[in-house]
Amino acid sequence: MVCRSVSVGGRRVCDMTSVPRPPRPPSSLSPSRASDFMQCPLLYRFRVIDRLPEKPSEAATRGTLVHAVLERLFDAPAAERTAPRARALVPGQWDRLREARPELAELFAGDEAGERLATWLGEAERLVERWFSLEDPTRLEPVEREMSVETELESGLRLRGVIDRVDVAPTGEVRIVDYKTGKAPRPEYAEGALFQMKFYALVIMRLKKVVPRRLQLVYLGSGDVLTYDPVPADLERVERKLLALWEAITQATETGEWRPRPTKLCGWCDHQAVCPEFGGTPPVYPLPVRPA
Ligand code: SF4
C-alpha cells in the first residue's frame, strides 16, 4: 500500500487506500521529507522509497481538517469571515475529508455513540476559534491559499511544497503564513520550526525573484504567533543546507545505507516493527545498489 495524494479543500493529503506504485528513487525534496531525513534517514527510506503505510492519527487528521476550514473560510466575503461561520464549516469539511479518505473511518472504530468523534470535532472547533484571537480574517485578502510551489535549483534539485497562505501588502511585500495545530516550540527549538518557512521562502525567492518580507507561523494549539523576517543570506544558507542534505540522500539511495537514528520521536514512528533499533528487520531494499 502507498500513500496517494488527494485534494481535500484544495489541500493535498495522504490517502492510504491501496494503490500499488513501484518504488523509485526520490526526485525532489519537500520540507516534511527533508525533516524526516534530518530526524532519521531510515524513516525517510520507509516513507519515500518503501512507501510503507502509516496509520492515520487523530492529531494529524484534525490538523488537515482545521487547515481545510481556514482555507474555505476565505471563500466568504470579508465581513462574513466570523468565528461562528468558521465553526459551522467543521462538520462539512470533515465529511469531505472522510469521503476523500475512507480509511479515516478507522480513527473512530467502535465509537458507536459518537462520543469520541464529538470530542474530537469539538477540539477542531476550538482550534478554529482560537485563530480569531491571533489574526483577523476580515482584514486579510490572501493572494494564495494552499499554494503548491515547485522550483528547480541550478544544481537540478527540485524543491516542492504547499504553502498555507500568501499575503501581499499594497507595497508588494510578501508574507508567507503557515498554520500549526500544535503548540509553539520553546525558543531553543524555534530554528527547527522556521526551517520549513525558510524552505518556502527560498522557493519563492527562486521562483518569483523576491525575498518574502515576513514568515509567520500561527500556532493554534497554544495561541502563539512566531515571525521571522528573512534576508537573502538566510535563504542562501538554507539552499546550501538542502544541497548537502540532497547529496546525503542521493548517496544513501545509491548505496542502500539508511541508518536509523533513534530519538524520543521514535515513540511516534509507525515503523518500529521493521526498525533494527526495535528488533525489527527492514523490508528488502527495493532499488539497485552500488557498493558504499
Ligand atoms: S523507530 Fe526511530 S530509529 Fe526506527 S525508523 Fe522510526 S524514527 Fe527511525
TrEMBL record:
Gene3D superfamilies from the UniProt entry: 3.90.320.10
Pfam families the record matches: PDDEXK_1
Keywords: ATP-binding, DNA damage, DNA repair, Helicase, Hydrolase, Nucleotide-binding
UniProt entry tagged with the keyword Nucleus: no
GO molecular function: helicase activity
TM helices/strands, residue ranges: none
Keyword flag Nucleotide-binding: yes
One of the protein's GO biological processes: DNA repair
Segments for region (Disordered): 14-34
Start and end residues of each PD-(D/E)XK endonuclease-like domain: 28-276
Domain of life of the native organism: Bacteria
Protein's name in the database: DUF2800 domain-containing protein
Organism: Streptomyces nitrosporeus
